[in-house]
C-alpha cells in the first residue's frame, strides 16, 4: 500500500504492520523534526505554506521598457500630485475675484477738460442732438433767419455767445479756430481722454452753422451774416431783445433780427480761418473737408476785395465785440488757408512785410503778445514760426519767418515772471489786460501758446530759447502755463475754482439765462424772468465747464449774477480754456502731431537767394 509523501516521494505502508497508533504518531513526529532540520527549497516552502503572500517584484515591465518599481511609483505619484496641484490652482484662479490693473487717475487738467467741453453743449442753438447731455436745455430759436426782411434764411443752429442768446459770428469763429488748432496739434491727447469724437462734434456744429451764413457754394459773394439777435438797451428802450429780456432761449418769442455786412474783412477773414482750420480736422471726410476749404476761399476773397470792419458804423456788435483792425485777420486767415490748401499764394501774402507791419508785428504796444478774439497777431506769429521750425522753407520766406520766430520768442519772454512786461496779482495771475475786467479769457490763450511753443521747441530738438543774454529751458514755459491754469482751477487766494463744476468751491450765481431759470414747465415772459436774474439763490441748473470772467486785479471775486464782469462765461473764453487744458493734460509722453497740419503742403525746395548787387566804387 502506498500513500503520498508530503515531502516529495512515495510512502510505502505495510498492511501487516502491527505498530500501534501511538507508535506511529511518535515515529511521524520524529520524522517531522528530522525533515525540518534541513533547509527547504522554494517549492517545498510553497507546498508547506500554501498560496500565501508572494514576494514583490523589484521591477515593472511596461512592455517596451523595464523600470524599477520604486522609480515607477515615485514618478506616478509625482505626476498625480502635480495634476492635483494644477487643478487646485486653476480652481482658485477661476473663483477668486480678479483685481484688474488700474491706470493712474486722470490729472486735474484732463478732469477739467471733460467739463470745459460740456459748456459748448449747453450753448447750442437750434434743434439739439439726442446725445446733447444737458438735461435743462432743449430746442430753441428754430425760426432764426426766417424774418421776411432778411435775405439770410435758415440760420438756426450755431452757438449762443455767453449768458445771453445772441449769436455773434466774430468771436464764435475765433472760438472754432482755436478748438480746431488744439485738435490738429493734440488729437492724440483728446483721444487718450476719450474726447476726440466730442470735440469734433462741437467744431462741426459751429462750422455747419457758418456755412449757412453765406452762399458757400458760390465762388464770389457780396454779404455775410454777422449776428443774429440784438443786445443794445441804450436809450431806455423797452423793446424786447436778448439783453432786455431774461428768458430761457427755449421760450424766446420775440423777433430776432439778422445783421448782414457787405464790408467786413475782419469777420470774413476770421470765418475763413475757422473753416480752413476745421478742414484739416476733418481731412478724413474728404467731401466735407473740401466743402470747408471752398467756403474758406470764398470768404477770404470777399474779405480782401470788400474792405472794412464789420463793427464800424455804429453796429450793435461794436458795443460788445468791436473789432480794432482787420490786418491781423488777413495774416491769421492767410496762414490757415496756406496750411489747408498748400497754395503758396497764401504763404506769400502771410509773409508780406507790409501786411505784417499793418498788423502791428514790429511796433509792440501795451497789448502786444495778447491773443484774443479781436487781435490774432500773436497766434499768427506762433503758427508761422511752426513752419520755420519744421519745414524751413528758406528763401524768399526766411527773412520774415525769422522775424516772426524772434517776435514769438520775445513774447514768450514777456510771459515770464522775471520780466515786468505784465503785472501780476498777489496770487500770481498775470494781468494781460492790464487790470481791466474779465481777465481769464486772455490768460488761457497765453497758457495755450506757451505750452504749444514749448512743445514746438522740444519736437524740433531745441532745449530752450534766449531772453536777451539768458537761456531758458522749455520747461520754464510750461511752468508758466501750469501756474496760470492752476490759479484758474482753484490754487488762488480765494481757493475758488473759476470753472463751474470743477472742485468743491466754484461760482454758483453764473450770469446765464438758461442756467438761472428752472426748467419747471413754466414759460416766463421777457420781464417775468427778471426775478430769477435778481435772485440771491444759486442757479437751479449747473452750467458745467463754464469758465467765468474771473477775479479783479486784487484777486477779488463777487459771485453775483448781475455782475457779468465777474460771473459771465463766453464762447471764446472757453475755447482758450479747452486748448490750454488739453495742451497740459496727460503724463507728458504724448506730444504734438508734427505732420498733420502739413498734409496739404507740398515738399518745399527753397530757391537760391539772388546774388548781391555788383560792387561799385
Indicate the structural class. Answer: mainly alpha
**What is the string of helix and strand elements?**
EEHHEEHHEHHEEHHHHHHHHHEEHHHHH
User: Which overall shape is indicated by the principal axes computed on the Cα atoms?
Assistant: globular
Strand line-up of the largest beta sheet:
5-6-7
What is the number of beta strands?
A: 9
The value of Rg in angstroms is: 44 Å
What integer is the average pLDDT?
89
The number of helical elements comes to: 20
Explain what the structure shows:
Strand 8 (about 465) and strand 9 (about 470-475) form a beta hairpin. Helix 5 (about 170-190) runs parallel beside helix 7 and helix 10 runs parallel beside helix 13 (about 375-390). The strands form 4 sheets. The protein has a 3-stranded antiparallel beta sheet with strand order 5-6-7. A two-stranded antiparallel ribbon has the order 1-2. Strands 3-4 form a two-stranded antiparallel sheet. Residues about 1-20 have low confidence and may be disordered. It is mainly alpha-helical. The protein is built from 20 helices and 9 strands. It is globular, with a radius of gyration of 44 Å.
Topology, element by element:
Layout: E1 2-4, E2 10-12, H1 21-36, H2 42-49, E3 59-61, E4 66-68, H3 69-95, H4 108-122, E5 167-168, H5 169-192, H6 196-212, E6 224-228, E7 258-261, H7 265-281, H8 286-305, H9 317-320, H10 327-341, H11 344-350, H12 353-358, H13 377-390, H14 398-415, H15 440-459, E8 464-467, E9 470-473, H16 474-488, H17 513-516, H18 530-533, H19 564-567, H20 571-584
Antiparallel strand pairs: 1-2, 3-4, 5-6, 6-7, 8-9
Helix pairs in contact: 4-20, 5-6, 5-7, 5-20, 6-7, 7-8, 7-10, 8-10, 10-11, 10-13, 13-14, 13-15, 15-16, 15-20
Amino acid at each position: 500500500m502506498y500513500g503520498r509523501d508530503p515531502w516529495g516521494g512515495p510512502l510505502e505502508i505495510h498492511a501487516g504492520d502491527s505498530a500501534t497508533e501511538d507508535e506511529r504518531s511518535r515515529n511521524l513526529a520524529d520524522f517531522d523534526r528530522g525533515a525540518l532540520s534541513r533547509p527547504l527549497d522554494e517549492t517545498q516552502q510553497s507546498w508547506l505554506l500554501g498560496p500565501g503572500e508572494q514576494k514583490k517584484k523589484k521591477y515593472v515591465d511596461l512592455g517596451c521598457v523595464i523600470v524599477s518599481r520604486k522609480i515607477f511609483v515615485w514618478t506616478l505619484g509625482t505626476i498625480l500630485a502635480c495634476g492635483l496641484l494644477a487643478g487646485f490652482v486653476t480652481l482658485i484662479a477661476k473663483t477668486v475675484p480678479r483685481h484688474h490693473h488700474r491706470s493712474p487717475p486722470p490729472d486735474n487738467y484732463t478732469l477739467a477738460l471733460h467739463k470745459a467741453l460740456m459748456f459748448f453743449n449747453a450753448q447750442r442753438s437750434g434743434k439739439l442732438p439726442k446725445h446733447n447731455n444737458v438735461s435743462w436745455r432743449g430746442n430753441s430759436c428754430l425760426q432764426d433767419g426766417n424774418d421776411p426782411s432778411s435775405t439770410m434764411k435758415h440760420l438756426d443752429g450755431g452757438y449762443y455767445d455767453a449768458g445771453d442768446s445772441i449769436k455773434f459770428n466774430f468771436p464764435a469763429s475765433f472760438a472754432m479756430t482755436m478748438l480746431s488748432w488744439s485738435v490738429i496739434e493734440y488729437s492724440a491727447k483728446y483721444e487718450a481722454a476719450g474726447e476726440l469724437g466730442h470735440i469734433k462734434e462741437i467744431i462741426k456744429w459751429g462750422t455747419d452753422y457758418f456755412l449757412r451764413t453765406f452762399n458757400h457754394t458760390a465762388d464770389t459773394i457780396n454779404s455775410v451774416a454777422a449776428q443774429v439777435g440784438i443786445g443794445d438797451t441804450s436809450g431806455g428802450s423797452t423793446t424786447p431783445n436778448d439783453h432786455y429780456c431774461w428768458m430761457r432761449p427755449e421760450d424766446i418769442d420775440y423777433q430776432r433780427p439778422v445783421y448782414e455786412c457787405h464790408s467786413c474783412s475782419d469777420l470774413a477773414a476770421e470765418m475763413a480761418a475757422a473753416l480752413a482750420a476745421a478742414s484739416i480736422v476733418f481731412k478724413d471726410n474728404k467731401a466735407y473737408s473740401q466743402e470747408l476749404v471752398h467756403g474758406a476761399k470764398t470768404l477770404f476773397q470777399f474779405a480782401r476785395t470788400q474792405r472794412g470792419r464789420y463793427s464800424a458804423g455804429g453796429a450793435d456788435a461794436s458795443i460788445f465785440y468791436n473789432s480794432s483792425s482787420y490786418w491781423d485777420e488777413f495774416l491769421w486767415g492767410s496762414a490757415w488757408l496756406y496750411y489747408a490748401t498748400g497754395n503758396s499764394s497764401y504763404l506769400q501774402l502771410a509773409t508780406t512785410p507790409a501786411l505784417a507791419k499793418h498788423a502791428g508785428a514790429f511796433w509792440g504796444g501795451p497789448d502786444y503778445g495778447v491773443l484774443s478774439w479781436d487781435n490774432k497777431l500773436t497766434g499768427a506769429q506762433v503758427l508761422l514760426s511752426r513752419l520755420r521750425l519744421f519745414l524751413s522753407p528758406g528763401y524768399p520766406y526766411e527773412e520774415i519767418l525769422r522775424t516772426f520766430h524772434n517776435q514769438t520768442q520775445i513774447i514768450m519772454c514777456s510771459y515770464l515772471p522775471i520780466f515786468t512786461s505784465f503785472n501780476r496779482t498777489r496770487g500770481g495771475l498775470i494781468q494781460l489786460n492790464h487790470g481791466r475786467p474779465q481777465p481769464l479769457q486772455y490768460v488761457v490763450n497765453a497758457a495755450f501758446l506757451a505750452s504749444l511753443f514749448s512743445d514746438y521747441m522740444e519736437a524740433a530738438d531745441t532745449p530752450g530759447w534766449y531772453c536777451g543774454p539768458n537761456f531758458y529751458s522749455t520747461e520754464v514755459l510750461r511752468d508758466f502755463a501750469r501756474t496760470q491754469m492752476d490759479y484758474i482751477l482753484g490754487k488762488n487766494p480765494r481757493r475758488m475754482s473759476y470753472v463751474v463744476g470743477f472742485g468743491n468751491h466754484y461760482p454758483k450765481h453764473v450770469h446765464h439765462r438758461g442756467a438761472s431759470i428752472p426748467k419747471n414747465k413754466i414759460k416766463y415772459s421777457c420781464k417775468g424772468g427778471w426775478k430769477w436774474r435778481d435772485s440771491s439763490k444759486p442757479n437751479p441748473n449747473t452750467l458745467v465747464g463754464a469758465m467765468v470772467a474771473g477775479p479783479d486785479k486784487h484777486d477779488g471775486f463777487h459771485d453775483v449774477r448781475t455782475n457779468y464782469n465777474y460771473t459771465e462765461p463766453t464762447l471764446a473764453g472757453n475755447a482758450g480754456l479747452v486748448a490750454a487744458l488739453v495742451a497740459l493734460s496727460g503724463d507728458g509722453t504724448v506730444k504734438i502731431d508734427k505732420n498733420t497740419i502739413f498734409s496739404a503742403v507740398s515738399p518745399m525746395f527753397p530757391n537760391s537767394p539772388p546774388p548781391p548787387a555788383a560792387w561799385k566804387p
